[in-house]
Automatic annotation (TrEMBL):
It holds the Pfam family Pkinase. Belongs to the protein kinase superfamily. CMGC Ser/Thr protein kinase family. GSK-3 subfamily. Its EC number is 2.7.11.1. This is non-specific serine/threonine protein kinase. PANTHER family: GLYCOGEN SYNTHASE KINASE-3 ALPHA, PROTEIN KINASE SHAGGY-RELATED. Gene3D superfamilies: Phosphorylase Kinase, domain 1, Transferase(Phosphotransferase) domain 1. It catalyses: L-seryl-[protein] + ATP = O-phospho-L-seryl-[protein] + ADP + H(+); L-threonyl-[protein] + ATP = O-phospho-L-threonyl-[protein] + ADP + H(+). It comes from Zygosaccharomyces rouxii.
Length: 288
């Protein structure tokens, strides 16, 4: 955590060890102060009851993908436990920071990883299929699940067990194709699954516009290679409202520095041609 420096990642200020009367040693972490978790923020609206403001959701999700883009492409770290409880927010400013890196790991192509990772409701399907050579894309799936929960007021895939989690996913997204199963874990290609037709996400998210529904669909693809990565998420037209903000929304965007990127960290992995294309999308003309 001391190596991670990004405005949307909780900053480790200091740490120390403490021993209790029984000789047990405890690690104490001194972190940035954030008033509450995104889970607590959502519960507030559920109890009112009222929907969380869509612009607030959009601000939170943009910051989440900014932090994931940094983690995945510069720090080369996969968080592996993205969920509302691990996202800290300040409702007064709409600031968001990722916390809890207890499951985080630098993924290496030649090194197997445990598949029993990530909290169940947010667990990517390749993990449920037992993949041990997965990618940072599991964080994007989790983020899509978080966004869906903010919109619905409840988890999109509320599985009661690992297998039931897959059932909940299939009930909405339909049975994965043979190619999609191969992309998640080729060991299951010969397994026979009941053929379930997908439910259009527009029926699940009846109150949301087409742009929002399409963005969710891009984050919730079975095939990790077809799933948007964090930078593609940032470039999505779903966030154009933030890029062309006016009035009070522009003040929020400016105060959070949403449209500012560190080229030597957040965009360092891009070629010059890619960088120019991304800048055209991420940053309006007036700040370039």
């Amino acid at each position: 955590m001391k190596l991670l420096k990004h405005p949307n990642i909780i900053d480790l200020k200091y740490y120390f060890y403490e021993k209790d009367s029984h000789g047990e040693v405890y690690l104490n972490l001194i972190l940035d102060y954030m008033p509450q978790s995104l889970y607590q923020r959502l519960r507030h609206f559920v109890h009112i009851p009222s929907a969380m403001p869509r612009l607030e959701i959009k601000c939170y999700m943009y910051q989440l993908f900014k932090s994931l883009n940094y983690l995945h492409n510069f720090a080369l770290v996969c968080h592996r436990d993205i969920k509302p409880q691990n996202l800290l927010v300040d409702p007064n400013t709409c600031a968001l920071k990722i916390c809890d890196f207890g499951s985080a790991k630098q993924l290496k192509p030649t090194e197997p990883n445990v598949s029993y990772i990530c909290s169940r409701y947010y667990r990517a399907p390749e993990l449920i299929f037992g993949a041990t050579h997965y990618s940072n894309q599991i964080d994007v799936w989790s983020s899509g699940c978080v966004m869906a929960e903010l919109l619905l007021g409840q988890p999109m895939f509320p599985g009661e067990s690992g297998i039931d989690q897959l059932v909940e996913i299939i009930k909405i997204l339909g049975t994965p194709s043979r190619q999609e199963i191969c992309a998640m874990n080729p060991n299951y290609m010969e397994h026979k699954f009941p053929q379930i037709k997908p439910i259009p996400l527009s029926r699940v998210f009846k109150k949301e516009d087409e742009q929002t529904v399409q963005f969710l669909a891009d984050t919730l693809k079975y095939d990790p290679m077809e799933r948007f990565n964090a930078l593609q998420c940032l470039c999505s037209s779903y966030f154009d409202e933030l890029r062309h903000a006016q009035g009070q929304l522009k003040q929020i965007v400016d105060s959070l520095q949403l449209l500012q990127f560190e080229y030597d960290t957040e965009l360092a992995h891009l070629t010059q041609d890619q960088l120019e294309a991304v800048r055209l999308k991420l940053q309006p003309t007036q700040i370039r």
